[in-house]
Design brief:
Elements: H1 2-22, E1 108-112, H2 113-124, E2 129-131, H3 133-136, E3 141-145, H4 152-165, E4 168-173, E5 176-181, E6 193-196, E7 206-212, H5 218-228, E8 234-238, E9 243-249, H6 250-263, E10 274-277, H7 283-296, E11 301-302, E12 310-315, E13 320-324, H8 328-341, E14 352-356, H9 363-374, E15 380-382, H10 398-408, E16 428-430, E17 449-453, E18 457-462, E19 467-472, H11 474-487, E20 493-504, H12 513-520, E21 526-530, E22 542-547, H13 550-562, E23 566-570, E24 573-577, E25 582-599, E26 610-630, E27 635-648, E28 659-672, E29 676-693, E30 708-728, H14 731-744
Parallel strand pairs: 2-5, 3-6, 6-7, 11-12
Antiparallel strand pairs: 1-3, 4-5, 7-9, 8-9, 10-13, 12-13, 14-16, 14-19, 15-17, 17-18, 18-19, 20-23, 20-24, 20-30, 21-22, 22-29, 25-26, 26-27, 27-28, 29-30
Helix pairs in contact: 7-8
Length: 752
């Protein structure tokens, strides 16, 4: 009964609690009119959550709430700028998107480069650009003075040119500019001032000046400048603005602006002037001759710019004539007659005075080379205060000769230095007033004048102006001039790489380097010469060895160095002119007693006669003297003197002066270009004694020897020298050979 009552009470309680849980809070139940779909897999990823089946039925189901655009998070795709353009790609300014079409002007004073980019490209030109942090932080001051407005394209070109001069790399892609600082290991150049003006600035500061032209074409102007001037100025065409952009010292730019003022006149509009360099004629004689020919062809000759026809402007200093033709047809005719007239055959048979200006060689050296070929009279070399004379030769006054030199070879109004032709330095000038005379002069500055004469040739060289004065007929001068041009070439140079090492002769090297090379080298060719061939004992070792494969020997030295068997003493590298000596001296000066004597006039500490010593300082260390001579077939003749000396204590006498241990080599060898010669055989032997002992016990008389160990060291070393010469060829010479081959082979004529 009790169990039945318990079950009845438990069941009633369970039903009561269940009914309470299922009763809704509201009396009236709301019917759901919209079916709630079971969330799909993609809905589970919604940031607003998921509507579940347990959602209260008395509430309308939630709808997705639209998110404002400003709050939407971007997708997981980075909006980086487009990739930078390829390097070394030519910049095409026509693709750059410029946001303005009106003429603009930029005028800034000492503005930082980073701010200048933002102002010029961003505000004035409105060009899209990407700039790196280094350029943005560049504080180089920029100054631009632009008094007139230009087209946006021209201003953009000016701005980009300024950025490139400040080590900023500019490239384009998609119409935008990319500005990146160039990696440089050199010191940045000082800030440059940019001036847009025709007015010259007489300053030593390096500036960039844009000079507008009024009448003459920029291409014509720059061709004349390149034909007349050979200076350090950087002159470029600024065609869209009809201007020239010059970079360099202000005083040099001033001389060019003065020249432009002379040729940029209304008469030069649409004209194409050219400069004719003459060899066998004086400018005045050439103008007379060609004028008579053109007049015979009914072509008028203008005497001034106001007259129609061809205008000739003689330039005595350059021995040239500027020709201003009315049209291209007349110009072609003049160029044709220039080639016909300016020859030795057309210049007549009378003697004339010429001036040859060497480009690469001293004038005295060239005259000395011709002396043995042409000279039949004694030569005279004079310096300050002496006038050189030639036997059986009429001589003009020193003042007249000096005046001719100052006129034709001295400093010009264009800023060229004396003794060099302003258009390349290899031309000639004709001096009619010096006909029949050998120019000589009395210079106060002490130049060296070398002169000689023959039957139909008289030559004088002046060191002051580095010029050669020649009196000869045009035919003879043609021959002499061709010889001078062959001799007046850039001197060749030899780069000599040297390794001086000391090898410890132990183990496999105990018989010297000679034995090791003969028994160990399997590759490469070599020749060995020992002292035994001279009747001397062969224990001296190697004298000279030539090895074609120098890399093997270098690897061998590296291996021995790792085993502490080789000590590299020096590795000098010499760049030497052909047939000129060079030397390297690395070491110290050691005082050595040269002589000593006693004198009663010199007091001493003992009261007797004093000692007078004569001390001489001796150079010790490594001394290398080399004289290279380039032979035919790429062979180099090397005259070598090498010395290695060290100061050592004097244990052989009581003189308080060190002894000098000297090892030297003096030889002449012939080595091909890039080959290696090894000089050796200087073997030295040093003996030394070493004592090791137990402290205190080793100092006990007699018994101390039981606690000592005496060792005798015998060290044998060999000094070797490895030299590798390289002939430095001239690129201009290689280009001339290539041009000659191209001119001979017809299928090369279309190649540029």
């Amino acid at each position: 009964m009790k169990n039945k009552k318990f079950l009845a009470i438990f069941g009633a309680s369970t039903l009561l609690f269940y009914s309470c849980a299922m009763t809704p809070k509201e009396a009236n139940q709301i019917t759901v009119t919209k079916q709630i779909k079971k969330p799909q897999e993609n809905e589970k990823k919604n940031n607003l959550g998921v509507i579940s089946e347990g959602f209260p039925t008395n509430v309308n189901p939630l709808e997705p709430i639209p998110i404002p655009d400003f709050y939407k998070k971007p997708k997981n795709t980075a909006t980086a700028p487009p990739p930078p353009p390829e390097k070394n790609k030519k910049l095409d300014l026509s693709k750059v998107k410029i946001g303005t079409k009106e003429p603009v002007a930029i005028n800034v004073q000492n503005m930082p480069l980073g701010d200048f980019v933002q102002y010029a490209l961003g505000q004035v030109l409105k060009v899209p650009y990407f700039i790196d942090q280094a350029t943005q932080n560049n504080k180089t001051p920029v100054t631009i003075n632009m008094p007139v407005k230009l087209k946006p394209q021209d201003v953009l070109k000016l701005v980009l040119g300024l950025l490139e001069k400040n080590n900023v790399e500019v490239s384009e892609k998609g119409g935008a500019l990319y500005l990146n600082a160039k990696p440089t290991n050199v010191t940045p150049s000082p800030p440059q001032e940019v001036v847009f003006s025709r007015k010259a600035l007489n300053t030593f500061q390096t500036i960039t000046q844009i000079v507008p032209l009024k009448y003459i074409d920029p291409n014509t102007a720059i061709n004349l400048i390149h034909n007349i001037y050979h200076s350090s100025l950087d002159v470029q065409i600024f065609p869209k603005a009809n201007a020239l952009m010059m970079t360099g010292p202000g005083y040099s730019i001033k001389s060019l602006i003065d020249f432009l003022d002379a040729i940029d006149i209304p008469y030069m509009k649409n004209k194409k002037p050219v400069l004719l360099h003459l060899t066998y004629w004086s400018p005045q004689d050439f103008v007379k001759q060609i004028s008579s020919i053109l007049e015979g062809l009914n072509i008028p000759i203008a005497q001034n710019p106001n007259q129609p026809g061809v205008l000739f402007v003689p330039i005595d200093y350059l021995n040239s004539v500027m020709v201003i033709p009315p049209d291209s047809k007349t110009l072609k005719l003049i160029m044709y007659w220039d080639k016909k007239l300016d020859t030795a055959e057309s210049a007549g048979t009378e003697e004339k005075a010429y001036i040859y200006k060497p480009r690469f060689t001293r004038a005295t050296e060239l005259v000395q080379a011709l002396q043995s070929l042409y000279s039949i009279t004694s030569t005279t070399t004079a310096k300050s205060g002496k006038t050189p004379t030639l036997k059986s030769s009429p001589v003009i006054s020193p003042q007249e000769a000096a005046g001719q030199l100052n006129t034709l070879a001295g400093p010009s109004a264009y800023g060229n230095y004396a003794g060099m032709s302003p258009y390349g330095g290899m031309g000639s000038a004709i001096v009619p007033s010096m006909q029949g005379a050998v120019p000589t002069s009395n210079f106060n500055t002490g130049p060296e004048v070398l002169a000689f004469s023959s039957k139909d040739l008289r030559i004088a060289a002046d060191d002051r102006t580095n010029t050669i004065l020649i009196v000869a007929t045009p035919t003879k001068y043609k021959l002499v001039r061709s010889l001078l041009q062959e001799l007046d070439k850039p001197p060749k140079q030899v780069l000599i790489k040297t390794t001086i090492a000391e090898v410890t002769l132990t183990g496999s090297l105990q018989y010297g380097i000679e034995w090791y090379i003969q028994n160990r080298f399997k590759k490469g060719t070599y020749t060995v010469s020992t002292l035994g061939n001279l009747g001397v004992a062969t224990s001296g070792g190697l004298v000279a060895t030539y090895i074609t494969d120098s890399k093997i020997f270098q690897a061998l030295l590296n291996m021995f160095a790792q085993k502490n068997k080789v000590k590299i003493l020096s590795t000098p590298t010499l760049l030497v002119l052909n047939n000129h000596p060079a030397s390297i001296d690395v070491g110290t000066q050691v005082p050595v007693i040269n002589s000593q004597a006693t004198s009663i006039n010199v007091p001493s500490t003992t009261g007797g006669a004093g000692i007078i010593q004569s001390v001489q300082y001796v150079n010790t260390g490594i001394i290398l003297n080399v004289l290279p001579t380039i032979e035919t077939n790429n062979l180099v003749n090397l005259n070598i003197y090498q010395e290695d000396s060290t100061a050592q204590p004097n244990n052989t006498s009581g003189i308080n002066s060190p002894i000098i241990l000297t090892r030297n080599i003096n030889t002449t060898v012939v080595v091909p270009n890039g080959g290696t010669v090894i000089l050796g055989g200087l073997i030295s032997q040093q003996k030394g004694t070493g004592v090791s002992e137990i402290p205190i016990l080793g100092d006990i008389p007699i018994l101390g020897n039981l606690f000592k160990n005496t060792s005798i060291n015998n060290t044998k070393t060999e000094l070797i020298i490895m030299l590798t010469p390289y002939i430095i060829t001239d690129t201009e010479e290689a280009q001339k050979i290539t041009d000659e081959i191209k001119s001979e082979l017809s299928f090369y004529k279309d190649l540029k």
